[in-house]
UniProtKB/TrEMBL annotation:
The lineage of its organism: Bacteria, Pseudomonadati, Bacteroidota, Bacteroidia, Marinilabiliales. The keyword Metal-binding does not apply. Belongs to the NAPRTase family. Keywords: Glycosyltransferase, Ligase, Phosphoprotein, Pyridine nucleotide biosynthesis, Transferase. One of its GO terms (cellular component) is cytosol. This is Nicotinate phosphoribosyltransferase. Catalyzes the first step in the biosynthesis of NAD from nicotinic acid, the ATP-dependent synthesis of beta-nicotinate D-ribonucleotide from nicotinate and 5-phospho-D-ribose 1-phosphate.
């Protein structure tokens, strides 16, 4: 399999916002570039008004960091940038520093396919301030998009109740990587495969598909079109039956299917792409049953999303498999996940970590300080709650976690009594990659296994319950003290 970096011929170190470079220059000039800092990547709200999200995009992060260096041409480009006085913006010493810099950070991340919730650090980066800062924009780009799409795919898969979902998004996706990384994330979220052949090759995802209306239009009549298609691919045939008249299309598909079966071939199915999908699928199922072709599958497509799939299930539509493009790969109803990357601690001259926050009018938007980790607790085989804590805290005995949005909500937990695990796992140690690549099938299996651990009230689409995520009581108090301190200082 190609690595992700190979999609782009050049280094990706410049895949950053300009302000990251100007800040890096500032850190270097102020001799702060080697000062240790800790940053967390997290989002504040689940997308699609849902109750959960699926972490995705880490492999892009790992690939990006493994190749994180400035090429000669990157340096030449930065050297060519001038300020408003017409002179070069950056000193040569800084550019030399960038050119010879090697990645030195510690990175921890929640594995792809894990269910995650607002405010939890999906990625924690600890290391030289300059390096932590430079990688912000790329990390957000990878994680925000793929987490969004994996979550959408998981929602669609939940609605489809185990039926295969084919991702058909290439033609409507936002550009090249908008299609490729969407195919990857859709598979991790639960799709059975993609129509995007490059994504199939690149990520080892099954490639799936039917045929277009143009196939039928290209022949004199529909029967001849179906006959020719079946004979071309007798072991990979799904007929699109709605080009002219759906009931008649179904009859013709049945005629050719019977003919092919007498020759020992199994036709996979028919596809409906317009009209009332519940009505036509029931009509098709009846006709197939009558023809002794109950094993032939019915595929539906046409601007579907999780809500329409759920509605069609409620209508007892006889649909076995779903083709979903636009609304999946563009995350149509919420085109971005608002993940952010915030500095949470910085090492002082004595080598001690100092907690940091960023104030906001809305207290829920004030970030969590410290060196965070997330502990997930399980009870009776289900996920029971996640606690964000500082990695330096002793958690023996009973601990209390407090909901930062509503401090009256708290929960006592004992890690000796409940099963629990730390979600953030080491990915880079002092710049050395310790991440063990997992197959994309394994990542998909993780999503599915995790969804089984989540209560159905949290998975429902309308007004889902809020999964308990809290701050360890000491961390809650430290955050509150910092908020009060900075608020008083700014008065
Ligand atoms: N039984 C149904 N219940 C709810 N929504 C449906 C049902 N059948 C189809 N839909 C959805 O309704 C929307 C519009 O369907 P419609 O058949 O009008 O599509 P269309 O694109 O206008 O068709 P055509 O290609 O014939 O112009 C699509 O998103 C489709 O998935
Ligand atoms: O509706 P989506 O969820 O985006 O799924 C992809 C759509 O793309 C195709 O339509 P298109 O009209 O582009 O080509 P076709 O002639 O093959 O139907 C396909 O028939 C689906 O309707
Ligand atoms: O194979 C299909 O049926 C397909 C592929 C891409 C888009 N729409 C449909």
């Amino acid at each position: 399999m190609d690595n992700i970096q190979s999609t782009y011929k050049n280094s990706m170190a410049l895949l950053t916002d300009f302000y990251e470079i100007t800040m890096a220059y500032g850190f270097w000039k102020n001799e702060m570039h080697q000062q240790k800092a800790a940053f967390n990547l997290f989002f504040r709200n689940n997308p699609f008004s849902g109750g959960f999200s699926i972490a995705c995009g880490l492999e892009y992060v790992v690939d990006f960091l493994n190749h994180f260096s400035f090429t000669d041409s990157d340096i030449d480009y930065l050297a060519s940038l001038n300020g408003n006085d017409g002179k070069p913006l950056f000193e040569k010493g800084f550019l030399d520093y960038l050119q010879h810099m090697t990645f030195e950070c510690d990175v921890e991340a929640i594995p792809e396919g894990t269910i995650v919730f607002p405010n939890e650090p999906l990625i924690k980066v600890k290391g030289p301030l300059l390096q932590c800062q430079l990688i912000e924009s790329a990390l957000l780009n990878f994680i925000n998009f793929q987490t969004l799409i994996a979550t959408k795919a998981a929602r669609i898969s939940i609605a489809a109740k185990g039926d295969p979902v084919m991702e058909f998004g290439l033609r409507r996706a936002q550009g090249i990587d908008g299609s490729l990384s969407a195919s990857r994330a859709s598979f991790i979220g639960g799709c059975a495969g993609t129509s995007n052949v490059l994504a199939g090759k690149k990520f080892n995802i099954p490639v799936l598909g039917t045929h277009a209306h143009s196939w039928v239009q290209a022949f004199e009549d529909e029967l001849k079109a179906f006959d020719a298609f079946a004979n071309t691919l007798p072991n990979n045939t799904i007929f699109l039956v709605d080009t002219y008249n759906t009931p008649r299309g179904i009859d013709k598909a049945i005629e050719i299917t019977k003919k092919m079966e007498t020759r020992g071939h199994k036709i996979n199915g028919i596809r409906l792409d317009s009209g009332d999908l519940a009505y036509f699928s029931q009509l098709a199922r009846g006709k197939l049953r009558e023809a002794g072709l109950s094993h032939v599958k019915i595929v539906a497509s046409n601007d579907l999303d999780e809500h329409l799939v759920a509605s069609l299930k409620d209508q007892e539509a006889e649909i076995d498999s779903w083709g979903i493009g636009t609304k999946l790969v563009t995350a149509y109803d919420q085109p971005a996940l608002g993940g952010v990357y915030k500095l949470s601690a910085i090492e002082n001259k004595n080598g001690e970590w100092e907690n940091r926050i960023k104030l906001s009018e809305q207290s829920i938007k004030i970030n969590i300080p410290g060196l965070q980790q997330v502990k997930r607790f399980y009870k009776d085989g289900k996920m029971a709650g996640d606690m964000i804590f500082d990695e330096r805290t002793d958690l023996s005995g009973t601990v209390r976690m407090i909901d930062p949005a509503d401090p009256t909500r708290s929960k006592k937990l004992n890690k000796e009594e409940l099963t629990c695990e730390d979600l953030l796992k080491p990915v880079f140690c002092k710049g050395q990659c310790v991440y063990e690549k997992e197959s994309i099938q394994k990542l998909q299996e993780r999503t599915s296994a995790q969804l089984n651990l989540l209560d159905k009230t949290i998975k429902r689409f309308a007004n889902p319950h809020r999964y308990p995520v809290g701050l360890e009581e000491g961390l809650y108090q430290r955050r509150l003290d910092l908020i009060l301190k900075y608020k008083q200082e700014s008065e």
